């Protein structure tokens, strides 16, 4: 499914000018049909899936207990 710049801005909750800038920087892939840019919505779904996976991995890493180091000496 293809979205216009306005629909993409609404979908991503950002201003249209920022979406246009990202298209210009080639951070968002878009097709120009002669009148307007069309953006494939699927590229964002994969991005959001990847972001969620990275968040999950970071949370697992943060919850991992710190192993005790046998070389640490008590200085008391």
TrEMBL record:
Q: Superkingdom of this entry's organism? A: Bacteria
One Pfam family, short name please? HTH_17
What InterPro entries does the entry give? HTH_17 (IPR041657), SinI_DNA-bd (IPR010093)
| GO MF term set | DNA binding
Q: Helix-turn-helix domain: from which residue to which, for each copy?
A: 2-47
Q: What is this protein called?
A: Helix-turn-helix domain-containing protein
Species this chain originates from: Neobacillus notoginsengisoli
Phylogenetic placement of the source organism: Bacteria, Bacillati, Bacillota, Bacilli, Bacillales
